[in-house]
């Protein structure tokens, strides 16, 4: 029964919320919301955007387009572009910058192939990355960082460091909410939800950026391939890069690499001895795109120089 997966310390109202997530047709609801969010509904779209801005106290002063009626669809608003200069990308060659606005859920070491999800819960690195041990191998004993994007946040995803795309993997799955309540109560959340896994090579080791889907996340996109989901599928798909007729896809630190249409989570995974996270950052730390995220280890810097 779903209730067996819910923490015994969770209050009754929260238990009901979690149980409903197990029962509800999450894919069907999410795809319906996606169609509505992509529709051009004139004054109704403008009204919905206005309501959303007020409900979540969204700072439109930092957006390139500032008024609700500047957007044709709710998706256009949700993936709004920032005004030039709204974020500054950390320029130190030996550091990484935060890839998104959000808040850290968990981060730390990958121990025995496991990542921490919440107190009492961990999940499998190999499962997160699509089930292939060879894909997970470069990240064993490395580090991970999970950042949750709330509805109010900027929803474009950027690169924390310079990198070259090696592989993209679509992994089908559930569409549970990824908010803190669900993360604290649904086992294997990030390894069971639908997701797009992107694997990069850098001068300092392997990097994975995992874009995790969630309830009413209408779409996950990348800058090189467009919309990856929907449609959803039952099979894992893999794309290798560079592909035939496609040049190597390279990114500089701070370049946009993808976006969510409605909120979700990004899990970043780093090779062993590659980075050290900012010491005072941890669960609930607010992140801002471009600010200091981590520092390259002396070992990874010296190996890159050889």
Word description of this protein:
The structure is a single chain. With 306 residues, the protein is of the alpha+beta class. The chain folds into 2 domains: 9-78, no CATH class; 95-305. Helices cover 22% and strands 29% of the residues. It has helices spanning 12-23, 26-38, 43-55, 74-78, 125-128, 133-136, 180-183, 189-192, 298-305; strands at residues 95-97, 102-109, 114-118, 121-124, 143-148, 156-158, 163-171, 195-202, 205-212, 219-222, 226-229, 237-240, 250-251, 256-261, 265-270, 275-277, 286-287, 292-296. Strands 2, 5, 7, 8, 9, 12, 13, 15 and 17 form a 9-stranded antiparallel beta sheet that branches. It has a 4-stranded antiparallel beta sheet with strand order 6-14-10-11, with no helix packed on it. The protein has a 3-stranded antiparallel beta sheet with strand order 1-18-16. It is globular. It starts with 11 loop residues before the first helix and ends with a helix.
How many DSSP-defined strands?
18
- In whole angstroms, the N-to-C terminal distance is 55 Å
Radius of gyration: 19 Å
Q: Tell me about the biggest sheet?
A: 9 strands, antiparallel
Please bin the fraction of helical residues: 10-25%
Order of helices and strands: HHHHEEEEHHEEEHHEEEEEEEEEEEH
Structural class: alpha+beta
